[in-house]
């Protein structure tokens, strides 16, 4: 689940291995481009961590962040992670 913390939506996903995590990130990158809203993220081996917030709105959580979070969740579902 996404949690709101320190003016950001945050969530961490865990995959079977680095290759699976990277495939997920590649698909998320395409969604972020489509939505014209780009996340902060970090990856270490099989874990991908996100922080979503809207810079144009003073680094607060907006509808754009919730829309991107839903898109990321859909990609995660396609990759077998919920």
UniProtKB/TrEMBL annotation:
Entry's EC annotation: 4.2.1.96
Domain of life, per lineage: Bacteria
Keyword Nuclease recorded: no
Keyword field: Lyase
An example Gene Ontology molecular-function term: 4-alpha-hydroxytetrahydrobiopterin dehydratase activity
Reaction catalysis annotation: (4aS,6R)-4a-hydroxy-L-erythro-5,6,7,8-tetrahydrobiopterin = (6R)-L-erythro-6,7-dihydrobiopterin + H2O
Pfam family, one: Pterin_4a
Keyword Heme carried by entry: no
InterPro entries attached to this UniProt entry: PCD_sf (IPR036428), Pterin_deHydtase (IPR001533)
Family from the record: Belongs to the pterin-4-alpha-carbinolamine dehydratase family.
Matching PANTHER family: PTERIN-4-ALPHA-CARBINOLAMINE DEHYDRATASE
Protein name, per record: 4a-hydroxytetrahydrobiopterin dehydratase
Originating species: Hymenobacter nitidus
